[in-house]
Amino acid sequence: MVFEKVGVIQDFENGKGKLIKVNGKDIAIFNINGKFYAIENTCPHQGGSLSDGMLNDKVITCPLHSWQFDVTTGECKMFEGAPSVKSFEVRVENHEVLVYVE
Predict the structure, then answer these.
(1) b/e sequence 35-66, b meaning 16+ C-beta within 10 Å
(2) Confidence of residue 80 (pLDDT cuts 50, 70, 90)
(3) CA-CA to 68 of 20 to 30 Å: which in 8, 37, 85, 86?
(4) Residue 4 has what pLDDT?
(5) How far apart are CA 85 and CA 88, in angstroms?
(6) Residue 93 · residue 5 · CB < 8 Å
(7) pTM for the whole thing?
(8) Could you give the CA distance from residue 65 to residue 45 in angstroms, rounded to a whole number?
């Protein structure tokens, strides 16, 4: 299992999402009070950029049509059976933010 460095803690504003690219994939990284989460950046509904959405607690709202996803799991919060987005493991080591994307 290889974790890719995506930045340092200071690169990620608290309460906001940031788009990064890892192994050719667009990933949204979220800093919630120093705890980091990573999910696929593209909303499965209409392709909105989740890193540009509004973060409320641990739920990101897509800026295009307001679909909501739990940033800790990628689970869609809209309705049962709605498509989720993939979540990725994040680690912080020596002030570096690392993401595992297979």
Answers:
(1) ebbbbbbbbeeeebbbbbbebeeeebbbeeee
(2) confident
(3) 8
(4) 95
(5) 10
(6) no
(7) 0.95
(8) 8
